[in-house]
Write a structure and sequence with these properties.
The complex is a heterotrimer of chains A (90), B (166) and C (107).
Chain A lengths: L1 H22 L3 H25 L5 H25 L9
Helix pairs in contact in A: 1-2, 2-3
Chain B lengths: L1 H20 L4 H20 L16 H24 L8 E6 L5 H13 L3 E7 L2 E6 L2 H8 L2 H18 L1
Antiparallel strand pairs in B: 1-3, 2-3
Chain C lengths: L1 H27 L3 H27 L3 H30 L16
Helix pairs in contact in C: 1-2, 2-3
Classes of the chains: A mainly alpha (90), B mainly alpha (166), C mainly alpha (107).
């Protein structure tokens, strides 16, 4: 029951973040909002695991948290240099 | 020293494997041992392994600092939530420059991340003698200017380097 | 048992309400650098309280360890990502809107 409430709350958060991602005046606003969506999604997957009593979902959440971080850095790097580049200075 | 950090890395990776897989039969554990060796080999090959095992020493003063930081995070979260939910947001945005008393890069990174992790303050830029901090309201800026956190992290660093000299 | 249950429900409700506050903040706050602070709420107390509540719900099992690892990853990567976002904004020529210039020498 309480898991359901928290899940709905997180869905609302994702919705609010998506509105900012659509509105965002600059591209960094959009990336910020997508970062927030990513964190909310990690929590959402973990909660869904509890909601359906399938703890395997936590592995997916763990992986998603890592991929979210790496993906966001990749997007930022792409916008900064125009390509993903060979030089390792980020 | 190299062996020291290799053993620590292998031990940590094996612990991670066991806690993530949850299966303790022969096949799964041997897969774990194989992949542990592979990852340790990869880290050495990519020169990612730091040879100063002393890095672990900074864990000494950690528990107390983490408790204090958690309290600080809760307090400033509630303050920031109040600001956001107020009908008319009372923002007092400013950029301040604060000194960092830490000497090692690790302690500086801990300090900068602690500032960022505490909502209401955000490390924007790092230069050799300090940080540029963006703050949302006056209370947060005063918090930074009072150097409480700075002193704490500097103490943490001293605590961890005293034993290094021995 | 029921006290632990009650505590975990309270933490879950507390955490998810802070998540919603973070979402509202991202929508309401007027400029980019303030919005970063709002996402900081989601990264620190929102995720922290929610995952702590789930950990109490799971008890002493491997699930707790996984939840703890998720929390550690979020708490460590959160500030790093935030810092990268702030640097990206500065490099793209966006300056922070200020209500008062306190230290003109900085930046």
């Amino acid at each position: 029951m309480m898991f359901l409430v928290a899940t709905i709350a997180l869905l609302v958060v994702v919705l609010l973040m998506l509105v900012r991602a659509f509105m965002g005046p600059t591209f960094v606003d959009r990336i910020l909002a997508i970062n927030g969506v990513g964190t909310a999604t990690v929590l959402l997957i973990a909660l869904l695991g509890f909601l359906t009593s399938r703890p395997e979902f936590l592995d997916i959440a763990l992986l998603y948290a890592l991929i979210n971080f790496v993906g966001m850095l990749a997007i930022l790097k792409f916008f900064r240099f125009g390509d993903l580049g060979e030089e390792d200075e980020g | 020293m190299m062996y020291h950090s290799m053993v620590i890395a292998a031990f940590g990776l094996m612990l991670l494997w066991l806690s993530l897989s949850g299966y303790f039969n022969f096949l799964q554990v041997s897969f774990g041992i194989l992949s542990t060796f592979f990852v340790v080999w990869l880290t050495i090959h990519l020169k990612l392994l730091t040879t100063d095992g002393a890095r672990l020493q900074i864990l000494r003063g950690y528990p107390l600092y983490l408790v204090w930081l958690t309290w600080e995070i809760i307090v400033s979260n509630i303050l920031l939530a109040k600001i956001i939910l107020a009908p008319k947001m009372e923002l007092h945005r400013q950029i301040i420059h604060t000194k960092a008393n830490q000497s090692s890069d690790l302690a500086k990174a801990i300090y900068a991340n602690s500032i960022t992790l505490t909502p209401g303050t955000l490390t924007v830029d790092v230069d050799p003698d300090g940080f540029t901090v963006h703050s949302m309201a006056k209370t947060f800026a005063d918090d930074i200017c009072s150097d409480k956190m700075n002193e704490r992290v500097a103490k943490l660093e001293r605590l961890s380097t005293v034993d290094n000299v021995k | 048992m029921s006290i632990v249950d009650l505590l975990s429900w309270a933490l879950i409700i507390f955490g998810s309400s802070f998540c919603i506050i973070a979402g509202v903040g991202v929508l309401r706050l007027p400029d980019y650098f303030s919005r970063i602070h709002a996402v900081g709420i989601l990264d620190s107390l929102g995720a922290g309280a929610l995952i702590l509540g789930l950990m109490l719900q799971a008890g002493f099992t491997l699930i707790t360890i996984k939840l703890f690892l998720i929390l550690v990853i979020i708490v460590i990567t959160g500030p790093t990502a935030t810092h990268a976002l702030a640097r990206a904004a500065l490099d793209s020529g966006l300056t922070a809107e200020l209500d008062e210039e306190n230290d003109p020498s900085s930046n």
